[in-house]
Amino acid sequence: GNSVTQMEGPVTLSEEAFLTINCTYTATGYPSLFWYVQYPGEGLQLLLKATKADDKGSNKGFEATYRKETTSFHLEKGSVQVSDSAVYFCALTLSGGYNKLIFGAGTRLAVHP
Amino acid sequence: DAGITQSPRHKVTETGTPVTLRCHQTENHRYMYWYRQDPGHGLRLIHYSYGVKDTDKGEVSDGYSVSRSKTEDFLLTLESATSSQTSVYFCAISESGGGRSYNEQFFGPGTRLTVL
């Protein structure tokens, strides 16, 4: 079946460190891929997206590239800030699937000064 | 921010009681979704709606029912709540749901439900 696997957390980093959160997927057809972020006590917000192979999504210094050959969509940021502390979810939708999201388990990021 | 509200925001109830959660949107989006969030599972789809009175089951629909009598409201009902339904429930909306073009889902603030 269709699924998303992302690295377990928590991930703890110092401010200005490099961030990578791994995400791989299993899907039939051609999924669109997303990263959502959830700040404490809030709902989810879309961080970035990619709709086809080799697309790079980017937003707020975060980037992720849709790699069809490795079925991956790893999230990266060159220099994290304390304000990036949140839970990050990788997700996919399938074309013709009513835009239903399939989520990974989430990765908690804690950034310390 | 997308106009999505959920009510109540917090609820504590007892096993066996009925519970209804409400999602209200002011965006006139066609598609609405209910997810539950549990540690280690991320968010999982309970039910979704693709128009007024048009609904379908998601991944974890057992024990839940939904109704959508107006574009702006999507209700989630637990007919007889169980402790396994203790969770955080999120509503989401989307302008369109099909084809290869991407349409963002906007999420509400969530409802924390505790079933004792």
Topology diagram in text:
The complex is a heterodimer of chains A (113) and B (116).
Chain A: E1 3-6, E2 11-14, E3 19-21, E4 23-26, E5 32-38, E6 44-50, E7 56-59, E8 62-65, E9 75-77, E10 86-93, E11 102-103, E12 107-112
Chain B: E1 4-7, E2 10-13, E3 19-25, E4 31-38, E5 42-51, E6 54-57, E7 64-70, E8 73-78, E9 87-94, E10 105-107, E11 111-115
Parallel strand pairs in B: 2-11
Antiparallel strand pairs in B: 1-3, 3-8, 4-5, 4-9, 5-6, 7-8, 9-10, 9-11
Question: In terms of structural class, how would the helical and strand content of chain B be classed?
Answer: mainly beta
Overall geometry of chain B comes to globular
Q: Could you give a short account of the major beta sheet of chain A? A: 6 strands, mixed
Which strand-content bin applies to the residues of chain B?
A: over 45%
Query: In percent, how much strand structure appears in the residues of chain A?
Result: over 45%
Q: Can you give a write-up of this model?
A:
The complex is a heterodimer of chains A (113) and B (116). By secondary structure, chain A is mainly β. Chain A contains no helices and twelve strands. Chain A has strands at 3-6, 11-14, 19-21, 23-26, 32-38, 44-50, 56-59, 62-65, 75-77, 86-93, 102-103, 107-112. Chain A is globular, with a radius of gyration of 14 Å. By secondary structure, chain B is mostly beta strands. Helices cover 0% and strands 57% of the residues of chain B. Chain B contains no helices and eleven strands.
What's a concise summary of this model?
The complex is a heterodimer of chains A (113) and B (116). Chain A is mainly β and 113 residues long.
Features:
heterodimer; A: 113 residues; mainly beta; 6-stranded mixed sheet; 4-stranded antiparallel sheet; 50% strand; B: 116 residues; 7-stranded mixed sheet
